[in-house]
Write the structure tokens for this entry.
Amino acid sequence: MPKKRSGGGLSTTQQAAKFLGVAALSGVVLAGIALPAAGALGLATKGTVEGFDEIPANLKTPPLSQRTTILDSKGGMIATVYSRDRTVVPLKNISPYMQKAIVAIEDARFYEHGAVDLKGILRALNRNVQTGGTTEGASTLTQQYVKNVFVEEAGDDPDKVAQATQQTMGRKVQELKYAIQVEEELGKKRILENYLNITFFGQQAYGVEAASQRYFSKSAKDLTLEESALLAGVVQSPSRYDPVNDTAEATKRRNMVLQRMADVGDISRAQAEKAKATPIKLRVKKPKNGCITAVSGAGFFCDYVRHVFLTDPVFGKTKEDRAKIWNRGGLTIRTTLDPQSQQSVQGSIKDHVYKSDKVATAVTLVQPGTGKIMGMGQSKPYGFGTNETQYNYSVDKAMGGSNYGFPTGSTFKPFVAAAAIAQGRPATQVYSSPYEMPYPTVQTCDKPYVNLNGERVPNENESERGPYALKEAMEKSVNTYFIQMVEDIGLCPVAQMTDKLGVVQGNGEKLPQSPAIALGSKGLSPLTMASAYAAFANRGTYCTPVAMESVSKADGTTLPVPKTTCSQAMTPTTADTVNTLLRGVVDSGTGQEAGLQSRDNAGKTGTTDARKNAWFVGYTPNMSGAVWVGSPSQSVEMEHITIGGVYQDKVYGGQVPGPIWRDAMTGALNGVPAPAFNTVDIPDPPKHDEGDRDRDKGHGRDKGRPGAGGKKPGGKSPFPGITIPPDLIGGNNGGGHRGQTNGSTQGP
């Protein structure tokens, strides 16, 4: 015996046969389901029950796209993002008025007919024949639901949307087949629930809950009669009957719905007249979508989360797979962002750099040992207006960053020191460190790097003349010391160390093996720098940065998230030695203005050629942070400049970025335990009395191509008990020519 539909009436085959029989006899029946009369002929393509049965019977209903909620680590809202603003609700949470209103105006016989309303088709056919057009349609709510499913499956692909809505014979017959299937499988109440959750109500609102919130700032379960009639009327033409932009048209349409509800007996005539006389009262919530809505300046972090989702294979094998999940939405993403840290980052930025300044700052905080991004912000807000940007200065270009990162200046020097210590050089290592010297020939992992044009590198001022031991050279950031260090150990150990620390250029490429990298000549991102320095805090273990704690879907199931990968980049002793060296930078070196008062801390300053970039990167045992200040276009030389309302004669890494780091870290760590570093004993040789020790004198100038040069025969160390390599004791080479920045080449 043929299976009956849950809605009553004929079986699938019987209803199909009856419908197609009427179609074959009339030749223009498709006018009744919104096809032009002139295009209604030609049913023969699917004009038999046999042909009808060839259509696949399984309507693949995609999960409805919904808003995605991005939360901080404590569960607080950061932002909502969506392809389609929708919140799916059960029928019991939709006002009975709304249910009756949509049925009355769209399909008054919904509970009486099956998937297709044959009486409605004949009525519409008669009406359209009389008028000579298509003034009336007869698609049921079930057919409309099926059509919306096609549109939902099409997503944001305009070609697929056009296919899903095209008025063709094949599409309409397919729609019919699926409508019959849906009636059999779901029943009337579930179809009504699905329809109210899928249909578009205008103003970027999909589904009745989003529409109720958009127009009336209330839940769909609380909609009044008048409000329900208004929303039901909008569905037919969301742009024409938009109550926000055309109250008069919306009122006429609402009153038509009220009259129809009275005609079918859902409400009394008196109720209808009273409701018609009630003016439309809206409480509109403006659409809020995307990272521009993020709180506490977390728009850039929000955008970083989006980039991670769309690029990490954990969320799908292909770009298309990941985009489909993201656009479908309905996700709750709990992130690593610590609200206390984020507020501290934004507060420090606001105090030190204005959005209208010629330069910008970017600040990123990460947690050693976990890779968790705790804070991320910048002085140019996330947006499209004046002094706003969508470029995230804290991250690499592939993740929404700007122009391949920013040269880091002397903040790169600790990587060189770590490589040298790992190669067995003592923490008391001394080099002659002249005021100025040629870039030397240096061994790389491949062939030697040769200075072809005799270009030279200077220190910050002529009073900086060696010899220096490592601790003092780090504190004063002596350029020539670290150039001699890479000459001594070669560039391959430096490259191996930075590889282990995840240090790549902002464009994703590995660092070139040239002596100039020792002075921070290449562009890196604050996130890269903060994560690399976190390995020092974590006693040599580097952890890749992560932004997500968990991702759950609307149905309560979870998705895997990218996990940090931790590896030993250097021995604990090497890391402890670097910690000891960098403590000296904030205690008595160029970073004194950045030093924290209440806990162990260490860091390094950096300023690049022509003062186009200034950095401070530092850490405590439980937090690492990087601060960059400069022009994103690299067009501003930070001399005689006002930043954050304060005039600066010359900007140094310890002078502007340093205090930003200090204030951001102080607030982020307020109330957090203050563990101590593991340190080593490094003897202090006699220091040079040069003054100005609080300035970042060594600022990493990228001055020309490496070349041969400048060694003199060895001699006796001026520091008792400390050995200087004989081939690195030389004259000061002062007063030499400073080469221009022309790039570099390797020799044969």
About this structure: The chain has a mean pLDDT of 84. Residues 336 and 695 are 35 Å apart (CA to CA).
